[in-house]
Amino acid sequence: MYFFYLRLLWTLLLCSLLSPLMGQAGTQELKRRDLEELAAVQSLMTLQRFDDASQRLAKLVKKYPEVAELRYLDGEIDQYEHRYAEAATAITKGIALDGGSSARAYRRLGDVCTQAGDYAAALGHYETYRAKVGEGGRASSIATADKLVAQARTVAELAANPYPFAPAPLGPGVNTPESLEYFPNLSVDGQQLIFTRRVNRQQEDFYQSRRQADGQWGKATPLTGVNTELNEGAQTITADGNYLVFTGCGRRDGAGGCDLYASTRVGDRWTDAVNLGPGINTRSSESQPSLSQDGSLLFFASNREGGLGQDDIYVVGRRADGSWGRPVNLGPTVNTPSNDRYPFWAADGKTLYFTSSGRPGMGGADLFKTSVNAANQWQKPTNLGYPINTPGEETNLFIALDGRTAYFSKGVGNDIDIYTFDLPGKLRPAPATYVQVSVVDDQTGQPLEASVRLQPQKPGGIVSARSTDASGHYLTVLPIGLDYGFSVEKSGYVFYSDRFSLTDTFSVTEPFRLQIRLQPVKEVASSETAEADGAIVLRNVFFETASDALIGLSTEELDRLATLLREQPAVSVEIAGHTDDVGTEAANQTLSERRARRVKAYLETQGIAAERITAVGYGESRPVATNATEAGRASNRRTTFRLVF
């Protein structure tokens, strides 16, 4: 029976070849023996044995130089082997031989020119293809031709306005000839790289590399504790390096083809990976995750039911208890009826990069950029342009905190490496910096697990509330262009507050590294951070200019002070107002007293008895910095509190 079907297949193949190659007007006819040789050539092509196919076809071309179909087949082999100039030559010869009667030949010539980077020529060939198809062609063929012409016009326009682009490979410490490297993730300080490596082009595992003193990347080593005998890939990690989400396919505990898994770093050890569960994973495929820097948002691609296309991009929020909410489709502004994949959520907290095959571009799948506006609406995506995008597929983009240093994988077939390049200015997200904090007991120096709050100093700013780890450490990212209120709290300790101003000139190469010494309530008077009289500055309490009217953002810090006083019912507080030396001494004295009284009044509204609060004003009499500079005057304009036991 097997041989019967084999002979039937061979007969059908010969018949398909006889039709175009026998009895062609003005051309040579192939003999049956040569038709059998031609069938063997096509069989070799099906098996992707292009070198063997090319050698045998060359003999036929030499014997039948006037047969156009042989030239087209020669061009097809050259195209598969990425010999685009030779492919174009062969197809052009075929067109000349058959008098330009083959519409399909012009389409293939357009494809070859596109792959060769000759986009203007490609457009011309697609237009010829459209004209020929329009001569009595089917509606579906005409629609396909129209789409090809429109695509070619877009490609030609993008190619006519190229961006500067000079990708550089990361070097032998990361890239290897025997394996594939992709999905780069860079630490916030730019010193560590985690990526996926397909070892010997078979086993997917995570590897890590550290930047050396000379700027080169050191030899990558496996990420111990996460890698297993199964495949792990397409990872994303939080800014503090402690929470990793990745794609795992075909696992026993999986819900579908590919699921998302998470692992947490505890000290120097990674926990066993845990499936993120039915709230996120479905019977379909979930992959290509991208976490926000603080781990509160997770973007991923999925082909689940109810989407807008094949693969769509979704986002899900993380609750305070660490569990995940319900994923939401990003909607038609981002997703298309085709594939939309490989999301990357930038550190500025508003810009998304992704790969789409459903939008006009260079062909294949291009990289796009979109962002959310003040109303939390997605903006129309922008193509990253040529030559970042090519007729191939561009994926897994990663952008460092500076907003300009980009990483991605690039290659052909079984030769894929990680590259870096400078992202052109118009395509960059806003830069960001980071805060790295160590919290300890002011008296003992022991690390403390404390609550950390970070709030942009603008109306509607989203508060980030987290805790330090068991070692007292905390790290978060701050997008440039905003001011931030920052506080650290622990029961039994006086809270710490600070303010980060990133609206003025600021270098992203200068992160905030703080050691915060929380003061036990009973020891506050002896703290090194207190002023001479034991007072502590309320760094996020603000007033209208030359007024005692509290700005709304001040209430969070005052609520914090009220909570401390409620926890310590035997403790009283002195609120003091201070000014700079601008204006008269009398006016400054009066203003400082009014501001202190306003704070006292607010604390009373929070249930603190009036007799526990003393309000005093010191005017300009107690400066802590020079009044000769604006920065110094800003330091002198302050409100303080001093606990009284």
Describe the structure.
It holds the Pfam family TPR_16. InterPro entries: 6-blade_b-propeller_TolB-like (IPR011042), Bact_OuterMem_StrucFunc (IPR050330), OMP_bac (IPR006664), OmpA-like (IPR006665), OMPA-like_CS (IPR006690), OmpA-like_sf (IPR036737), TPR-like_helical_dom_sf (IPR011990), WD40 (IPR011659). Its main location: membrane. Keywords: Cell outer membrane, Lipoprotein, Membrane. Residues 531-645 form the OmpA-like domain. This protein has 645 residues and is of the alpha+beta class. It folds into four domains: 14-160, Tetratricopeptide repeat domain (Serine Threonine Protein Phosphatase 5, Tetratricopeptide repeat), CATH 1.25.40.10; 168-427, Neuraminidase (6 Propeller), CATH 2.120.10; 431-526, Immunoglobulin-like (Sandwich); 530-645, OmpA-like domain (60s Ribosomal Protein L30, Chain: A), CATH 3.30.1330.60. It has eleven helices and 33 strands. A hairpin with a 5-residue loop joins strand 15 and strand 16 (351-356). Helix 2 packs antiparallel against helix 3 and helix 5 runs antiparallel to helix 6. The longest helix has 22 residues, at 139-160. The model is unreliable at 1-27 (pLDDT under 50).
